[in-house]
Design a protein that fits this description.
Uridine Diphospho-n-acetylenolpyruvylglucosamine Reductase, domain 3, Alpha-Beta Plaits, FAD-bd_PCMH_sub2 (chains A, B), FAD-linked_OxidoTrans_Type4 (chains A, B), Uridine Diphospho-n-acetylenolpyruvylglucosamine Reductase, domain 2, flavoprotein (chains A, B), homodimer, alpha+beta, FAD (chains A, B), five-stranded antiparallel beta sheet, 17 helices
């Protein structure tokens, strides 16, 4: 379909098949059902409003897109869609150090905001693994998490206000510049994590936090996941608040060693990376160490940034090391804290019984596990079976399908199992309020 | 109107005028336009569903009610309404220490939950001043704040899941038992703070946190509010995270001295109560003291619980001391951090120019100010003028009408000024999704 009526009024757009192919996919591996009609490179909010209004009048699907770094299929665009690329709206409009807020456009890369805040002694706390290339708009759309969330909260906790273009082209501003505020419904929270289905995020007011005065780091090995989880639970129960608590399972340690020629997997079955920060970082880590020692096979602590970087690098090496073995499905379940160890064991059983290779990383401090499924390690039906079993386990222990990546297209078949029909029905009716024509990222999230 | 068709099926209810009068008001001073028809004392969720379904079929307003401790008029019930009293649903169903969650009914008194959690070394962090008598359901309805929010977040941050009866009697469960989770829209967040207009909260899963290992306390006096606010801002910018940061202005100090025969008002113009907690509490307070010293006229620090209690008691004495002078309107604006000192000054100017006595307490760490307006201190039209001027000032500096108390009936006239018409229209359409018959707490919040 030609969209000359729209493109006439735009500053930048393309129908070049190579460009369309590039913007039709994200990092989920989901293959779209054909090329979209058009990609609009938004240069200002008017471009967004114009595109959405045009599409609403004609019932054309609009797929908003930041960096395309999503892993759940939320930005995948198929035949007949208009891709609305917001990566060009990348201005940091304001940083107000005294208010500890930033006002940004959606295409700002997360790490760039963090760096800009650092110039004022501040930081943007949410740190998804994709921070170096994902955008604030995409982080908001998925309510992205990250390593520091265990202490500093997820994206939702950092978003004070959003500007959004609704499905009829209306521009609304929700929220405020204050830390607290209860006037009206929490529409900001509703838009965060709505994966582009309720509105297109065109601006945001974000909370910044001070750079920590100090950071202390520990790396520990354990004989079992139970021991590692018991250690984390014990230190949390003592009121210690790690800023990072990451677990890698044995399969992941083996993969890292294969990639780097190291001996991690000989030192324990499970690796735990722990960090504390703030004025009491060192004292807090010393207290944490007292909790870890009796449960761990080895513990290394440091305040030396070089040693700390080496320990953190182990965690960072995990996904690339696994990806060397082929295409991966990055799952993202979260479970109550008491169910973490049992869930790691369940994933191992599922891997063994289906013959599918699965690696587990976990933001263990908040019960968010990433079972990384090696797609080519078994026949597709076995892989499907394994993924289904992982989801089923998570739901059976009171967990959720997705802790921080979003539902996208990949997890939609499981949505009703988690939410139940009455709640899913509420979702559809809320969607109709924000997007009466049903054009905003249809077929995603809900 | 007789509601025999409903009461036949109920376990407990009353049409006694004295009972109806009692349940028709809250602590806002708002006078209802007559007695409600009926009060239903819910004994289980079925009573709630039955009442709401009955009312929906007949277009009868339902006013949900906990302890009636609201200060914005959210629980005021007028002629023709059914009051749905949830205070009898007061069971703590579960406390799971390893998961750090509690599952409760809405009528549980906030302090009772906190006490029950303490038996497991945990606490319920949100601590509204009303905690000794307000209920969790009411706290959720208003997204209540409190003194500890500056470090531990507001009610919304502690609510993982809610059970709610929607306006057609449907029971839904939103959220989950996990700390993180992004499946579907954030309906939990939407219900929190909706002041009974979207659903009746009949259950909640709440996040608990460890009791702090230690607490350290400082009381400081300053020559000006500017100095006190500058001190708090400076320590926050250094990454110090006070668990309490409360400011009392000179008028309040005078009122406390009048009540208690003390000399607080001779020691400075402004009092700041500061607490730090956790493993590094003492070190953190020492660091804070270094920031306070050059700006304060005096600083007293302590880790002695008795001395700390005396300092905290000063803050606690504020409202009772002011209330000795007559009926008060408790305002609740919040402003960006850089605007706090200017707002205290603006309130003083407004008091002087209108002849209305206004006292200011502030949760200064998060910019939430309570200008306490002495209703009888000037003619009603002057009081209205003063309140209007306070709201106008808050909005003009990027602030909000209400930081933690809710809109209720009292702040509704100002709603459009803060939210704008397109956003207010969204509110009405969302309300229609949850409550098609428009019977849930009509005339409140939105």
């Amino acid at each position: 379909m030609s969209h000359a009526g729209l493109t006439r009024a735009l500053k930048a757009w393309s129908t070049d098949p190579a460009e369309l192919a590039r913007v039709s996919v994200d990092r989920s591996g989901t293959v779209p059902d054909g090329l979209p009609d058009l990609v609009v490179f938004a240069r200002d909010v008017d471009d967004v409003r114009r595109t959405v209004s045009y599409a609403a009048a004609r019932g054309v699907p609009v797929v908003p897109r930041g960096a395309g770094s999503g892993v759940a299929g939320g930005a995948v665009a198929g035949a007949g869609a208009i891709v609305l690329d917001l990566s060009g709206l990348d201005r940091i409009a304001e940083i107000r150090p005294d208010d500890a807020i930033a006002v940004v456009e959606p295409g700002v890369v997360t790490a760039d905001l963090d760096a800009a805040a650092a110039a004022h002694g501040l930081r943007y706390a949410p740190d998804p693994a994709s921070a170096a290339f994902s955008t604030i708009g995409g982080n908001i759309a998925t309510n992205a998490g990250g390593l520091r969330c265990v202490k500093y909260g997820v994206t939702r906790d950092a978003v004070l206000a959003v500007d959004a273009v609704l499905g009829d082209g209306t521009l609304v501003r929700t929220g405020r510049r204050t830390v607290k505020g209860v006037t009206g419904y929490d529409l900001t929270g509703l838009l965060v994590g709505s994966e582009g289905t309720l509105g297109v995020i065109v601006g945001a007011t974000l909370r910044l936090s001070p750079l920590p005065a100090a950071t202390a780091t520990a790396g520990a090995f354990f004989a079992t996941a139970e021991d590692a989880v018991a250690a984390v639970t014990a230190l949390q129960r003592r009121g210690l608040r790690p800023s990072t608590a990451e677990l890698l399972d044995r399969a992941t340690l083996v993969a890292i060693d294969q990639a780097q020629g190291g001996d991690l997997h000989t030192r324990g079955q499970v690796f735990l990376l722990l960090q504390t920060d703030g004025h009491g970082a060192e004292a807090e880590l010393a207290e944490a160490e007292r909790v870890l020692r009796p449960l761990a096979t080895s513990v290394e602590t440091t305040t030396d940034p070089v040693v700390a970087d080496r320990l953190v690098a182990t965690r960072r090496a995990a996904l690339p090391a696994v990806e060397r073995h082929g295409r991966v499905l990055i799952e993202d379940i979260a479970v109550p804290r008491s169910q973490i160890a049992g869930t790691v064991a369940a994933v191992e059983r599922i891997a063994a019984s289906t013959g599918v290779r699965i690696f587990v990383f976990a933001h263990v401090g908040d019960g968010n596990l990433h079972p990384i499924v090696l797609a080519g390690s078994a026949p597709p039906e076995q892989v499907d079976l394994a993924v289904a079993a992982v989801f089923e386990h998570a739901l059976s222990v009171g967990g959720t399908l997705t802790g921080e990546h979003g539902v996208g297209t990949l997890k939609r078949p499981w949505l009703a199992a988690e939410l139940g029909d009455p709640v899913l029905d509420l979702h559809r009716r809320i969607k109709a309020v924000f997007d009466p024509a049903g054009i905003l990222n249809p077929g995603k999230a809900i």
